[in-house]
Every structure is written in C-alpha cells, then in structure tokens.
Amino acid sequence: MATTMTGRREPPAFRRVVVESVEPRGLRLTRVVFEGDELAGFTTDHPAASVRLLLPDPGCSLEIPKWNGNEFLLADGRRPLLRTFTPWILSPRKIAIDIVIHEGGATSQWARSAHPGDTVAVSGPGRGHRVNPDAIAFVLGGDETAVPAISQLMQAMSSEVDLSVHIVAPADFGRVDLPKRQRSTVTWHELSQDRGEALADAFRSEERLSDSHIWCAGEAAAMQRIRKLLFDELGVSRSRATVRGYWKA
Questions:
Q1: For the domain that residue 211 is a member of, what is the CATH number?
Q2: How many domains does the chain have?
Q3: 10-13 — which CB contacts under 8 Å span 24+ positions?
Q4: 32 and 19 Cβ atoms separated by less than 8 Å
Q5: pLDDT (tens digit, 9 = 90+) per residue, 120-157?
Q6: Which residue in 2, 61, 114, 220 has the fewest CB atoms around it within 10 Å?
Q7: How far is residue 121's CA from residue 14's CA, in Å, rounded to a whole number?
Q8: What is the DSSP secondary structure assignment for residue 209, as one 8-state letter?
Q9: What is the domain range of residue 55?
Q10: pLDDT in tens, 164-221
Q11: Whether residue 120 is found in the same domain as residue 149
Q12: Cα distance between residue 94 and residue 96, in whole Å
C-alpha cells in the first residue's frame, strides 16, 4: 500500500525589515529596533509570543529561503541562519527584539556589528501565552533569554494576582529593569554551572506552588529538569504549568 507523506504547515511568510536602532538594555542585553512597511498587520494576541529572525550570511545580501514542505532552505540547499526571539510591538510598522550577547553566538556577532539601515527579515508571530484570568497567584521563572517574555507576562497580569519571579543569569549579565507592579517579588539568582539545578532550587523555595499557575522558559535541558521537578517530584498539575525550551547549550 502506498503511503502519503504530509508536510509540516508552512510558517508565516518572511517580512523584510531594516534596522532602525541598536541600543544596550544592560551589560549583555541589546535591543534592536526594526521598521518596515511589510510589518503592517503584524500583531500578537498574547504575551511571550515569538518571531523568527532571518539574518544574511556575513558579507552577503539577504536571501529569503523557500519552504520545502518541512523546513526553510536557501537556493543552494543550505539552511538559513534563523533564531527565535520574543518581539516587542512598538507601532504598526515597528518591532524590537532583545538579544543576549554571548561568545560564539551567530546572532550575538551580528548584533555587535548591526547598523541602522541593515536589512533582515522576520516571520511570525508564533503563539504566546494566554494568562488565565482566574489565576490568583503566578510563578514565573527562566534564564536570561526569558527576560523579555517574563517582562511581557508581568505587564499582562492583573494587579490582583500575587506574582513571584525568579531569574537565573550569569553574574556578568547584570540586572535588567522589569515592570513595576504591586503584589510581586522579583529574585535574581546567580548562575552556577548547572542551569537546571539553579532554577529547581528557586522553585523549591516557593511556598505557593500548590495554588499558583507557573510559566518557565530557558535552556532546553534545564527545562526538562524543571518539568520533572514540577510534575514528578512536586506533583504540580500539568494544566497549571507551561515550561518551554528556548535554546540548547
């Protein structure tokens, strides 16, 4: 019997944009603002959504890849340089992303040398997180890459919600200003060698996990440990927790 191969759903088309500005948000966090007419209609329904950033090869002009039914590929068959970020929508034709600067990262290298007028492209948005309007308490956690999403979630929550935030980051990442709100605590934890254990310790310190909704994001292996901690060790209901792997070490 013949079998039919079904392809994956094609992601949203790429929109060409240009860099408007590049500015530091902290010691190792850089905000890049993009603008362009092709951003018309770009919007997100919920906070902590995602956008794919397409970068050109160093020294080359931007090439928009083609979808082959499973992935995006360049004309010569190579995979394009794509990374996923949390977008900030600043106006109908302007968005921003915050990039963690670190050694060895292709996007970090690009951000260090980016200038106004540089052309890139974005695709999205990917799904965000619908904040449960009935939640009375929330615990947010993550590493330095989750700071933009955590900021948006904090802004989206009712002032009546008790909110506890835990961020694990290297000492040289510095501290980034987060939204000010009542009934919230923000704790920064210095990263040791083990990202997963650092976040796990932060969650174990929480006294209200039993009646809290939980959102956590960061390095993929660390998030696997958080899932095991929450669901297997602490008995948190899966319906009250969202845990997302953002990147791989």
A1: 3.40.50.80
A2: 2
A3: 10/67, 11/52, 11/67, 11/72, 11/123, 11/124, 12/123, 12/124, 12/125, 13/123
A4: yes
A5: 999 999 999 999 999 999 999 999 999 999 999 999 99
A6: 2
A7: 6
A8: G
A9: 14-125
A10: 999 999 988 888 999 998 899 999 998 877 788 889 999 998 988 888 999 999 999 9
A11: no
A12: 7
User: Is the confidence at residue 4, as pLDDT, over 50?
Assistant: no
The 10s digit of each residue's pLDDT in 35-49 is 999 999 999 999 999
27 with 97, same domain: the answer is: yes
Query: Other CB atoms closer than 10 Å to residue 173's CB: what's the count?
Result: 22
Tokens 């499973």 locate to 70
Report the CATH number that the domain containing residue 46 is assigned in CATH.
Answer: 2.40.30.10
CB 181 within 8 A of CB 158: no
Answer yes or no: do 22 and 105 share one domain.
Answer: yes
Range scoring the smallest mean pLDDT among 4-8, 49-53, 198-202, 227-231: 4-8
In the block, residue with structure tokens 């090869």: 57
Identify whether 116 is preceded by a cis peptide bond (ω within 30 of 0): no
Length of the chain: 249
Q: 117 with 173, same domain?
A: no
For residue 68, what are its two tokens? 């082959």
Residue 166: strand pairing partners: 141, 187
The separation between the first and the last C-alpha atoms of the chain, rounded to the nearest angstrom, is 42
